[in-house]
Write a sequence for this structure.
């Protein structure tokens, strides 16, 4: 057994190590600076209670992006030096973000131990590679992201850190081979347990969904299916679940071999970046002559986001969570006894609100960031939740879960088609969505992303919007000067949230303009980029008249888009004549 010692290393702080909505994200070259990763990891250990570090078990894995394998070895050596008893690592360092949450909550080690938390190495939907993005975040013992009280403490520690601890003579562990490697240090035994990345997560999914009914749907010659992992970590779960468990043809899988640079692509599951899938589903214009599949889906780099498509039909994430909530009790065994409540992030459309009112469910509107949903779930107040940024999930874990969302849709399709698998025309994704609109109305919705905007320019734009809110008559006068067919603003504010569980208050969570007819304009700065600022503009219009729910979304929203761009002076402040991404 290898015996190791502990080294104390002097260091100095780095600027800008403040975790965003989902951890610290920077360019790989930033993380590769001497001591940069070390400082953040030590600041995190210092922010945690002693009993969550000393003698504890922690998980260290991620989406496999470039620099992950090096980072895992560094964190293992620092964990050993800080008194951690065991480190659990997914084989090859791969664990999706939802799988990490499941491992924390569900996995029991051979000695009966459970994990007290996890370092997740991911920059989610951001590109990967030697000159692209890397990220790290810490999840707590409930499986969810560290709350603001902890991330604030981590950030404070990064600004004052003077030393870190590392077991330099601990040899690198072969994380490609499943098994236990044991060492001995000054504080006693230390183990690294490399385990199957998919087993715990697959077991949980089989407890939630009726795999037999989904398997029958996938076996129908009338139903075709495809799944695009965008060369992210979702690929290993897709092969295990869709092919090995549900007997889908392997040709249904696209880009399911994880790559450190995501194949040179942008692992963001939307209509802009998932181009190959969009074309295959008949939504990319010309260039694909085959009949599109009935159902298609994509994942981001760490498999917590999802995009759902029908044949020549896009399902907005806002509609997706509302439709899952509306059908969950009938179609998904996990929810057969009813929903505790539902929640959405503030920028997400109000489609879920309408479902909650119809079904008499508790409803919550929270800031962007999955940790806010986690509080509600831990308190037993929420079963299903979602964000417009392609994140959907439930209280089975404390992260959004892309494959869960796909299985939820397949479950709904299986339920709707249980008596139609032989002979009759299948109920399609589009049929389900249009039927939902006929019952609940349609929330026309789009999001404009302006990426890598100068941070100073972005702040000036937001300050301009806040200043406008001081006088609604003036705002409405401006709007009428832009478009006379747009209704009046009845409320304008910066969204502020008081958590009903712990009474914490989150301020400055986005600028809202709420219109008399139920329309909304929302502006916020995203915390998920690695450089510059990303301005997100959300535009929503509610239509209750069934005869008007079939319009093209961009046509229906055009008047509000014009108002939003001119009211915000988007081009004047940013120099951008068009968004980077429209979803």
């Amino acid at each position: 057994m290898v015996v190791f010692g502990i080294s104390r290393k002097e260091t100095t702080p780095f600027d800008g190590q403040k975790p965003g909505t989902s951890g610290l994200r920077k360019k790989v070259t930033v993380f590769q600076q001497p001591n940069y990763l070390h400082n953040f990891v030590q600041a995190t250990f210092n922010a945690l209670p002693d009993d969550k570090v000393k003698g504890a078990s922690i998980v260290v894995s991620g989406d496999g992006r470039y620099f992950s394998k090096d980072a895992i070895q560094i964190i293992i050596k620092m964990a050993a030096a800080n008194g951690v008893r065991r480190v659990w690592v997914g084989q090859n360092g791969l664990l999706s973000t939802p799988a990490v949450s499941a491992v924390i909550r569900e996995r029991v080690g051979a000695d009966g131990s459970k994990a007290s938390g996890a370092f997740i190495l991911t920059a989610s939907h951001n590109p990967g590679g030697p000159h692209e993005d890397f990220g790290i975040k810490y999840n707590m013992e409930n499986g969810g992201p560290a709350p603001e009280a902890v991330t604030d403490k981590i950030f404070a520690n990064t600004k004052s850190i003077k030393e870190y601890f590392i077991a330099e003579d601990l040899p690198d562990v072969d994380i490609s081979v499943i098994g236990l490697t044991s060492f001995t240090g000054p504080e006693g035994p230390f183990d690294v347990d490399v385990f199957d990345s998919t087993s715990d997560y697959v077991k949980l999914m089989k407890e939630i969904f009726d795999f037999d009914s989904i398997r029958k749907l996938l076996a129908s010659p009338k139903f075709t299916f495809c799944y695009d992992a965008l060369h992210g970590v979702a690929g290993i779960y897709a092969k295990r679940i869709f092919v090995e468990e549900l007997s889908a043809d392997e040709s249904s899988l696209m880009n399911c071999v994880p790559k450190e640079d995501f194949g040179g692509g942008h692992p963001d599951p939307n209509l802009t970046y998932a181009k190959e899938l969009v074309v295959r589903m008949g939504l990319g214009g010309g260039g694909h002559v085959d009949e599109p599949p009935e159902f298609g889906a994509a994942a981001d780099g760490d498999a917590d986001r999802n995009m759902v498509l029908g044949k020549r039909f896009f399902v907005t994430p806002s509609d997706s969570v509302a439709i899952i909530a509306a059908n969950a009790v009938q179609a998904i065994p996990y929810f057969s006894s009813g929903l505790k409540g539902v929640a959405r992030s503030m920028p997400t459309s109000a489609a879920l609100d309408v479902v909650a009112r119809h079904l008499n469910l508790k409803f919550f509107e929270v800031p962007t960031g999955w940790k806010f949903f986690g509080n509600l779930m831990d308190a037993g107040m929420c079963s299903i939740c979602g964000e417009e940024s392609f994140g959907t999930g439930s209280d089975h874990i404390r992260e959004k879960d892309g494959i869960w969302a796909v299985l939820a849709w397949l479950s709904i399709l299986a339920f709707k088609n249980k008596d139609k698998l032989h002979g009759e025309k299948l109920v399609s994704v589009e049929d389900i969505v249009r039927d939902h609109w006929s019952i609940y109305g349609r929330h026309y919705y789009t999001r404009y992303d302006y990426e890598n905007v100068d941070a100073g320019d972005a702040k000036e734009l937001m300050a301009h919007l806040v200043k406008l809110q001081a006088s609604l008559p003036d705002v409405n006068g401006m709007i009428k000067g832009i478009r006379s067919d747009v209704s009046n603003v009845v409320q304008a504010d910066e969204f502020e949230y008081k958590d009903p569980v712990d009474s914490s208050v989150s301020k400055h969570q986005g600028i809202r303009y709420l219109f008399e007819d139920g329309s909304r304009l929302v502006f916020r700065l995203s915390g998920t980029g690695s450089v510059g600022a990303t301005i997100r503009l959300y535009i929503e219009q509610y239509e209750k008249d069934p005869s008007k729910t079939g319009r093209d979304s961009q046509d229906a929203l055009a008047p509000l888009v014009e108002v939003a761009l001119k009211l915000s002076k988007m081009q004047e402040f940013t120099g951008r004549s068009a968004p980077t991404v429209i979803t």
About this structure: The chain has a mean pLDDT of 94. The chain is about 35% helix and 25% strand. The radius of gyration is 24 Å.
